[in-house]
Amino acid sequence: MDERKTVVVTGFEPFGEHTVNASWVAVQELERLGLHQDVDLHVAEVPVEYQAVQNLLPSLWNKYHPQLVVHVGVSGMATTVTLEKCGHNHGYKRLDNCSFCPESQCCVEGGPDCIHSVIDMDSVCKRVNASGLGVTVSVSKDAGRYLCDYTYYSSLHLSQGRAAFVHVPPLGRPYSAQDLARALRAIILEMLELLDQNKEKHHCQHSQ
User: Fold this and answer.
1) Which of 74, 87, 174, 194 could form a disulfide with 153 if both were Cys (CB 3.0 to 4.6 A apart)?
2) What are the tens digits of pLDDT across the range 87-102?
3) Which residues are the active-site ones (predicted)?
4) C-alpha angle 200/204/205, rounded to 5°?
């Protein structure tokens, strides 16, 4: 890596049947593991509340000015570590931990229906699966229209696409917190590598 980078990684608090949220446990494990000596890693636990997300995300961007923000959430249906390609603006009908739901049922009024991450998730998926990590990674286009999707869209909107979302399965189904942390580390390092390459390509095109 060329210069120091700042990465913010978030997990969610418990909700519903997830009395222990695998995403936050995995993120705390990642914090212990560290990313790379040239990467400053900051972690935060996100409340499962629409209004709290609206306040928290801008404050994380303003405080750390990260190169990348990666949100991690748990999916009871997931059996792999899943990279989400995009966030959706509409369809938020489920009540959050405060029994609240946005009246407009959308993240950003007047915003585009769908925002894609600038990171090529297929490429990250291929690279991590080829690295012999022992954790299977897959790709998805639907983050579920709840707080995960809501957080992802809001973050993509704030960052012009410099955000990512990773769904993890519940702990022990089949991976441990340590397995998930190793997978997150490999995924985030690949993402940073791709962002670097994109930046170089950008410079090359400008300098011709």
Assistant:
1) 87
2) 999 999 999 999 999 9
3) 84, 148
4) 120
Q: Is 86 a catalytic residue?
A: no
Q: Which domain holds residue 96?
A: 5-207
Q: By the 8 A CB rule, do 149 and 157 touch?
A: no
Query: What are the Cα distances from residue 48, in Å, to 35, 73, 88, 146, 189?
Result: 26, 10, 17, 9, 27
Angle at which helices 177-207 and 121-130 cross, to 10°: 130
Total domain count, the chain: 1
Task: Give CA–CA dist 54/150, Å, rounded.
Answer: 9
Q: How confident is the model at residue 208 (pLDDT cuts 50, 70, 90)?
A: very low
Task: Look up the CATH number of the domain holding residue 192.
Answer: 3.40.630.20
* 148 part of the active site: yes
Q: Catalytic pick from 86, 107, 125, 148?
A: 148
